[in-house]
Amino acid sequence: MSKRFLNPTEDPLWLRLLLGAVAVGFIAVLLLLPLALVFKEAFANGVSAFWTAIVEPDALAAVKLSLIAAAIAVPFNTVFGIAAAWAVAKYDFPGKTVLVTLIDLPFSVSPVVAGLIYVLVFGMQGWFGPWLIDHDIHILFAVPGIVLATIFVTFPFVARELIPLMVDQGRDEEEAAATLGATGLQTFLRVTLPNIKWGLLYGILLCNARALGEFGAVSVVSGHIRGVTNTMPLHVQLLYDNYDYAGAFAVAALLAMLALLTLVLKSLLEWRYADELAASHRH
Amino acid sequence: MSAIGLKFGFAKPWRVKPRHVLPGFRLSLGFTLFYLTGIVLIPLLALLIRPIELGPLGFWAAISTPRVLASLRLSFGMAAAAAVIDSLFGIVIAWVLTRYRFPLKGLLDAVIDLPFALPTAVAGIALSSLYAPNGWIGSLLVGYGIRIAYTPWGVLTAMIFISLPFTVRTVQPVLAELGLDVEEAAATLGATRLQTIARVVLPMLLPAILTGAAMAFARAAGEYGSIIFLAGNIPAVSEIAPLLIVTKLEQFDYAGASAIGVVMLAASFVMLLALNGLQSWAAKRR
Prior knowledge:
The complex is a heterodimer. By secondary structure, chain A is mostly helical. Chain A is built from 14 helices and no strands. The longest helix of chain A has 34 residues, at 57-90. Chain A is globular, with a radius of gyration of 24 Å. The termini of chain A are far apart. Chain B has a single domain (56-284), classed as MetI-like (MetI-like fold), CATH 1.10.3720.10. Helices cover 73% and strands 0% of the residues of chain B. Chain B has helices at residues 25-49, 55-63, 66-99, 105-111, 114-117, 120-131, 138-142, 152-177, 181-188, 193-222, 225-231, 241-250, 254-285. In chain B, helix 6 runs parallel beside helix 11 (225-231). The radius of gyration of chain B is 23 Å and the shape is globular.
């Protein structure tokens, strides 16, 4: 009677099969089925029907508006993320913990509340509402409001990626560069940037994905004017509510492709530059 | 995964050096504070002071109507349930992904982040079509008398979808760094495999599990996009609090919308403090 020696840290076969089946089944039903359904519905009437729904003028206007919002929000939050991470990582000052917590705050605020706060500042009954109307400046129900809401919900992405990374790297290299006579800009471009470039790219990638896909916050400030203030996700809702399922799923499939592309790039970054990104994900 | 509650020490005010070695202190901190104040703090202040016009009694009246209370109960109650369910499955998924080897594991790992990357409106219409009585899953369940779409269970389903990555992604790295030696020690001392998992591994994962659950709860309670397509939005039955804010805004009831917004914001603050506490507790245990 020879009994197979079981590695003490290895689960018995029945447990491995059970847990494996639970994990794979849960992921398949919860995550993969909805994804499959989006593509099935979008291409139910063939590729040409999908394409017709995408190049329809209102859909194209929505794509354009989403790209504009992301093109403004992402660079702003990138500059902010670098500045915040530089300040937190390279200097000592009182209140640093509070600052880091406040930077994370937009993540725990409901997207609808994010939209609401801009309505309270710029809306008709808001702080600057009457003044803005007198001067014929449109922020709410116009592009600036959409951009602001997008900036709010994507606010922490780059900063929270860079802060742990740059804190981990310390300030020795920058101080050495400064001692050797480098200017601040030279130090940043030649010493800091090469050290953080993959973490920076990772943060920008996630920031961009959220900017293109944001729904709740943008929905509150947009006013839902078809072809004018509808972003891609809002256009999906409009088509779906009007029972244009083919059109809704076509635009949804386009967004799903962007999401899949994001996941591929993210996995690629994690796999190729795992060591350099590690500091951001250890916590 | 999270920058929340990283252990940055306060510099003692009396030891602040007048000059810094590296240039750019004023520029970087100045821009950071300016941007943070303009984009986040001032608009949040507008929310906090808006309900003052109602007075304390008016504020209470605005948030204590049956419809508002029902929506808050639904959002927070279902978010708590979703956090518990996601934590259980999150532990199993993290365990399978870190400990077992099987084909296409990398693919499965990458798919976990789908709810982060997929816009919530897309998730919403997909889940709605899937769980509707004539959908792929809904048609299977309707035979058993179970309806998910257009009921409170739709709210729960969407929340489970949206929050899953938080629970997996907080437990997974901790599990990966956990040495096998403690498990070997437990086995040497005569523990069965299940005893080892229940009394050695799970207690060490506890801070990460709680952190993931708190993040999942916070996300689910505030979620809007994926839920409204699936829930049916029947007042006092399947109407979530964020949707009620939108409804009140459309009726130009700014103060009423702000009152609900303040309650939700207060909940966010509490969760943020809880997360900070959890992280420092976890750091102490290490």
